[in-house]
Design a protein that fits this description.
The chain has 385 residues and is an alpha/beta fold. It has two domains: 5-178 and 302-383, Aminopeptidase, CATH 3.40.630.10; 180-299, Alpha-Beta Plaits (2-Layer Sandwich), CATH 3.30.70. It contains nine helices and 16 strands. It has helices at residues 5-17, 33-43, 112-127, 149-157, 204-223, 268-285, 308-322, 337-342, 366-383; strands at 49-56, 59-66, 75-80, 97-99, 102-104, 136-141, 162-165, 173-175, 180-189, 236-243, 253-262, 291-299, 327-329, 347-349, 354-355, 363-365. A six-stranded mixed beta sheet has the order 1-2-6-3-7-14, sandwiched between helices. Strand 1 (49-56) and strand 2 form a beta hairpin. The longest helix is centred in the middle third of the chain and has 20 residues, at 204-223. It is elongated and about 80 Å long.
């Protein structure tokens, strides 16, 4: 199987032109329905069973199935339809351009490259009239950049025998692990009082400063020196902070938003417990300290099981085309692959190389994306035989 780079450029470019920025992130954005419809219309002539499934109002997963003859294993190819916003480069984000081996544009890699690879790989299998026993699923989902409602809806309803999630990375490595994460609010309560009444007021911001100092110490003494062998250093950073009403009043509340990671074998409760121990330390200094943690969103680490057969086939196809066996890889960022694995679906991740995700001048390697199409097509042929 040999895909032409011109076909890859044309399809990925067409997808880049369609604004599918996530309305959960950027209120008023168009979302994924237009791109889902475009892809559905592109796939139907190939004879696939195509479904547009509404997950949220006006936001559809695009599900397509290439039916096998029966008796084989089913394989799902998944990528996400949504992108982040593009205010910093709105003059060119939706205008794909090619420079050398790079295709530039919003979502050119993250993750319209994954959509492109799935679509062209299945097209190749169909056009070559390869008979498969197992079904091939294409699940192009909404909201990965938000709360992952698209993948959650898919794995709740469907259970393919295995899945390849194509979102970030390169052909040099196959992802079999990643951190989980939590978006947490730390809320410290003080007591409002006039600035000239220190005997009454309790300064919530001062108390929060003690918490932040100890969070930084936790990062420096635990997370930095003990990176996971695949996933690297546990993610931690402050994100937002607010508190107080005016210059002349003791602040009665201070709120800190953080992102914090979890490694395989951990849950977000491990991080909450650590923060609550910090509260106890601060209370030793300030007996009137009062704080709490609110978990706004949390996702578990990616820890797939039973993916060995899929790994062998996929890794073999990568080596055939690149000359080198891929390495098992992890990620310090989270993706929808974790939801597939958590649902009991053996899952691995792979994609074409690129850079500048979530930033101006995002790009994908055209040569790697072209190879990826052939790798996925051959993997389908072997796994679903």
């Amino acid at each position: 199987m040999s895909t032409k780079s011109e076909d890859v450029i044309q399809l990925d470019s067409e997808l880049v032109k369609i604004d599918s920025s996530n309305p959960w992130l950027i209120p008023g954005s168009p979302g994924e329905s237009k791109i889902a419809t475009y892809i559905a219309n592109w796939l139907r002539p190939l004879g696939l069973e195509v479904r547009l499934e509404e997950v949220e109002p006006g936001r559809n997963n695009m599900i397509a199935i290439l039916k096998g003859t029966g008796g084989g294993k089913s394989l799902c190819l998944s990528a996400h339809l949504d992108t982040v916003g593009y205010a910093l480069w709105k003059d060119r984000a939706l205008q794909p351009r090619v420079e050398g081996d790079r295709l530039y544009g919003l979502g050119a890699d993250d993750d319209k490259a994954g959509c492109t690879a799935a679509m062209l790989a299945v097209k190749s299998v169909v056009e070559k009239k390869i008979r498969l026993k197992g079904d091939v699923w294409i699940a192009l989902v909404i909201d990965e950049e938000g709360t992952s409602s698209g993948s959650m809806a898919f794995v709740k309803k469907y259970k393919p025998d295995a899945a390849i999630v194509m979102d970030g990375g390169s052909l040099k490595k196959i992802t079999v692990n990643s951190q989980g994460f939590g978006w947490l609010d730390i809320i410290v309560e003080g007591k409002a009082a006039h600035g000239c009444a220190p005997e009454i007021g309790i300064d919530a911001i001062v108390h929060m400063a003690e918490v932040i100092t100890r969070l930084h110490k936790l990062d420096e003494t635990k997370f930095v020196p003990n990176p996971h062998p695949l996933n690297g250093r546990t993610v931690f950073h402050t994100g937002t902070i607010s508190g107080g009403t005016d210059y002349a009043t003791y602040p009665d509340i201070c709120k800190l938003g953080i992102e914090i990671g979890t490694q395989p074998g951990e849950t977000i409760q491990n991080r909450v417990d650590e923060i609550e121990r910090i509260f106890e330390e601060v209370k030793q200094i300030h007996p009137d300290f009062k704080g709490r943690v609110e978990v706004n969103l949390a996702r578990n680490p990616f820890e797939p099981k039973g993916y060995e057969d899929l790994w062998k086939i996929l890794a073999s196809e990568v080596e055939k085309r690149t000359g080198k066996p891929p390495e098992p890889d992890g990620a310090n960022g989270w993706g929808d692959a974790a939801l597939f694995a958590e649902a009991g679906i053996p899952t691995v991740g792979i994609s074409a190389a690129g850079a500048n995700f979530h930033a101006p001048n995002e790009w994908v390697s055209i040569s790697e994306l072209t190879l990826l199409v052939d790798i996925i097509a051959s993997t389908i042929t072997s796994f679903c035989a």
